[in-house]
Structures are given as structure tokens and as C-alpha cells.
Design brief:
By secondary structure, this protein is an alpha+beta fold. It has helices at about 15-45, 55, 60-90, 215-230; strands at about 95-100, 105-110, 115-120, 140-145, 150-155, 160-165, 170-175, 180-185, 190-195, 210-215. The strands form two sheets. A five-stranded mixed beta sheet has the order 3-2-1-5-8, with no helix packed on it. Strands 4-10-9-6-7 form a five-stranded mixed beta sheet.
């Protein structure tokens, strides 16, 4: 959960998000080293009147400043490609959920169960209870079991939407007439908040996403009660 004046990412709640955080720190350290070197060279050139004649025309230096950036780009590209392939991996999911975007709410269908589907609307500010977050709480949460591979099929009924939960490292476009898929594994129990991340109309800011990760037995009890109520 993000908090005011937060500078970094939210705490990771899935293995993929942990990898993304590590890559972010890796890339940021390379950017910091490059920025420090460039700043040092600029200050040195501005503050001294001495000129080294070997720098004015030197093949060795040209070779170094050609090869070194290529090596740095490789050091950034290889971990990035690895994470891209990890994010596309969907290995034998234990649960499949279809998330459909509407103007302006989400509907969820648990395709492994018969007739287990519901709509998820934002809770109005006047109906919030103490401890709930304004513009982020929903009347029905998407419940998933902890440490179980979960596949999410994302689509839309009317306009473009985007199903995004930052702490899980997920952002998938919801396109009318198209079925996109993504997968995640929650590494700990908790509530993970997200919002539609594609401008979709007047109430774009009022269609939040809440993923509730619970133990497997609790998830089975929840689905049983929901089926009985239906």
C-alpha cells in the first residue's frame, strides 16, 4: 500500500515484483555511476586551464568510450529480457479468474467454478468504515489463495481499461473483443490495491481493484459461501 510522500515502489507481494525491484535498483546504480562520471568530467573541464594533448586525438580513448557503453547496455538488457520472459510464464495455474472492465466497475468470473461471478464497485466515501481507504475500497474483493499460481484473463465490455495492481507487478490492458492474460503468485496474505490505469471516461478514477490473498482453506470456504448465497 502506497503512503504519502513515498519515493520508491510499494513493497513487493509477488516473486515477479521482487525481481522488478531488484532490476530497478540495478539500473539506478548504473545511472548513478554514469551521472557521477559525467559530472566529474564537466567540473574538471570547466575548472582547469590545463589541456592533455593525448585526449585531443587518441584512438585508445575512442575505443574505450565506444566499447564501454555497449557493455553497460548489455548489463542492463540481459536482466531486463530475463524478467520479460518471467512475466510471460504461465505454468499450470491453480486458479483462473476472468476480469472484465466496464464503465466504471470491474466484474470477476471464477471459471473453475460453476456460476461464481460478481461485480466489484467502489465503496462511496460516505459508506466507508474506519480503516478503509477512500477511492480504493470495493464492495466485493477478488479473493485468491496464497502461494498458488493464479491466471487472470483480462478483457473489457465497452472502452479500453487496464487492470493494474502495483504490489503484484501486474498491469494488463483490457481491450474490448480481445482476451489478454497474465499470471501472478502472492507470496504473503494481505490486501493489495490497484486502480484502472487507462483513461476510460468521466469516472476513470472510481473503479478500484482489491486483491485479497488468503490461505487456501479460507479461499475454499469463501467460494462455497458465495455459491450458496447465489
Amino acid at each position: 500500500m502506497a503512503h504519502p510522500s513515498q519515493l520508491g515502489f510499494q513493497d513487493a507481494a509477488s516473486p515477479v515484483m521482487e525481481e522488478l525491484l531488484h532490476f530497478h535498483d540495478h539500473a539506478l546504480m548504473i545511472v548513478l555511476l554514469i551521472s557521477t562520471l559525467v559530472l566529474y568530467i564537466i567540473v574538471a573541464m570547466v575548472s582547469t586551464k590545463l589541456t592533455n594533448k593525448y585526449i585531443l586525438d587518441s584512438q585508445e580513448i575512442e575505443i574505450v568510450w565506444t566499447i564501454l557503453p555497449a557493455v553497460i547496455l548489455i548489463l542492463i538488457a540481459l536482466p531486463s529480457l530475463r524478467i520479460l520472459y518471467l512475466m510471460d510464464e504461465i505454468n499450470d495455474p491453480h486458479l483462473t479468474i476472468k476480469a472484465v472492465g466496464h464503465q466504471w466497475y470491474w466484474s470477476y468470473e471464477y471459471t473453475d467454478y460453476e456460476e461464481l461471478a460478481f461485480d466489484s464497485y467502489m465503496v462511496p466515501t460516505q459508506d466507508l468504515t474506519p480503516g478503509q481507504f477512500r477511492l480504493l475500497e470495493t464492495d466485493h474483493r477478488m479473493v485468491v489463495p496464497v502461494e498458488s499460481p493464479t491466471r487472470v484473463l483480462v478483457s473489457a465490455e465497452d472502452v479500453l481499461h487496464s487492470w493494474a495492481v502495483p504490489s503484484l507487478g501486474i498491469k494488463m490492458d483490457a481491450v474490448p473483443g480481445r482476451l489478454n492474460q497474465t499470471a501472478f503468485i502472492t507470496s504473503r496474505p494481505g490486501l493489495f490495491y490497484g486502480q484502472c490505469s487507462e483513461i476510460c471516461g468521466a469516472n476513470h478514477s472510481f473503479m478500484p481493484i482489491v486483491v485479497e490473498a488468503v490461505p487456501l482453506w479460507h479461499s475454499e470456504e469463501w467460494s462455497t459461501l458465495l455459491l450458496q448465497d447465489a
